[in-house]
Amino acid sequence: MRRPPPLNRAAFRDTAVSSRLQVVAAVLSFIIYASAVVVLQRHRDNSFFCERIGLAAAVSDVVYGAPLGKVYPEIQTQLFNAQAPIEAVLERVAHLDSQPTNTIMPVSDGNGIGFIVAASWAMHLFGPHLFSLPFFTLALMAISTATFLWRFGDNRSAVVTVTFFALTLMLCTPLVWDPGIANQIPIGGIRYFSLLAIVPSFHLVLELADGNAQAERARRLHTLLLAVQVILLVLAILVRGSAASAAGPILLVGLIRVWRNRANRFELRSLCRKGTVIAMVGAVFAGSLVVALPSRYVRDGRVGTVFWHRAVISFGVNPAWPFGNLHEKYDCKAGDIPEGLVAGAVDRNGHCIWWDYLVTHHVPIQFAIPELYGRRYEAVMRAAFFNIVRRYPHDVLVTFLYYKPEWFVQSIKYLALNAAFHFAILKVLVIAGFVNFLGFLVIATRFSGGPTTLRLAGLGALFGITSVPTYLVAWATPHTTADALFYTLFCIGLGLAAVMQPVRAAVRRAFPERARV
């Protein structure tokens, strides 16, 4: 019987040192990012155009005790005033002279229940102020980061380091300094929530990829940590539906693991347990939110974000839109939209088709606003989408195969090639993040395994690829392509870490005398 090889104490010590140093780099990366967000919050006043409905519902709940998901009309009306500074409006509606009465369902904005819940929780924690939203987002990211590092406090902590270094760099792009873009994706807003899904998504994939060689106590702890990340991921998806694209890589890795271990009943049992935890925790959390909200959200089909509305109005990225005789097919000029279908990817085109449906089917006009973005509205948009596909297949193909990809490429180029530092303290924090990242590269090159880092980079590329179809279903603009920009930076960062170790090894082989020194 062959004796096992002796324990390499030096290698074990190096691995332990590397793990600790990488966790330190990961924690510093988050602290630097969080500090930069706080600095920006002190200097900027984002208008939160897309979040006004959720803010009105949150103030109604937190300040005046309205049921979660309902709103007082006085508060909703004032927050609809997009001309007034949002901070001033929030201050005014949080200190009304008298208690408002008669809560109603908020006007549907097509974003579902996610942001209403998130904004309400944020204001319960930090008060009815605008800074509550970015602080709440940072708090969730901190929980996700701590959970990830608790579970993967080894080479895999590189996910956290590179994630927050990339997010710090993104604070210097037009996503922050271009007001026309920043107002569409404020930190803590609906579109920014897709970035909250990053660390939980990696956690789920790495947990599924991990083996079953765990003690019972560790297994219970890992299950608890997994449940925390599932809750954060489901919340991110409810707020920003495009985050659901992360389900693709998670499912793919799970299926690959099942196939590779199909003859190993212990591994299959472990995978089954993890999959059950993911499915059950996600379903229970989402179901609890639905139950806590008024039943009309389910009845009216307003739990999730709209899909077919975006698919229909995305035809507007084609300069030939409206195609053919669609002006006559969807005639809303006699109603509240006298201009009819117009060029561009604008919501009014969906409203025009909806108005034409109401008139054609003799539906009372009083249903126009209450059912906007609801179940019947989405059914009308779905029918319109396939009708347009049947009537103008060539224009549709050109839209999806040429114009939408072109918009995507132009959006990424604009974000990546237009960087600026608008505050000196932000420049200092970015430099600190860069120094911390260089330290991570040194650690990864000196101690860590290149294959692990390369696999993480490949996983990031997989997440990035699966996010692309969301831009083809709808359309890409600079304020909607933050995910794609992030994964580009993420893969570059981890790619550098992956290639530097073999480069260092090659240098050591070429100059052995220097290596001994």
Structure description:
This protein is mostly helical and 517 residues long. The protein has two domains: 9-46 and 130-296 and 408-507, no CATH class; 49-114, no CATH class. It is built from 23 helices and no strands. It has helices at 9-43, 52-62, 73-79, 86-93, 114-126, 132-151, 158-170, 174-177, 179-182, 198-209, 216-239, 247-260, 265-292, 296-299, 308-313, 326-329, 347-360, 375-391, 393-416, 424-446, 450-473, 482-510, 512-516. Helix 2 (52-62) packs across helix 5 (114-126), helix 7 (158-170) runs antiparallel to helix 20 (424-446) and helix 7 (158-170) packs across helix 22 (482-510). The radius of gyration is 25 Å and the shape is globular. The model has no long low-confidence stretch (mean pLDDT 88).
Please supply descriptive tags for the structure shown above.
mainly alpha; 2 domains; 517 residues; 23 helices; globular
* SSE topology string: HHHHHHHHHHHHHHHHHHHHHHH
Uncertain segments = none
Helix content: 55-70%
Overall tally of structural domains: 2
Beta-strand fraction estimate: under 5%
Nearest-integer average pLDDT? 88
- Tell me the structural class: mainly alpha
For the sheet with most strands, the description reads: none
Tally of contiguous helical segments: 23
C-alpha Rg (nearest Å): 25 Å
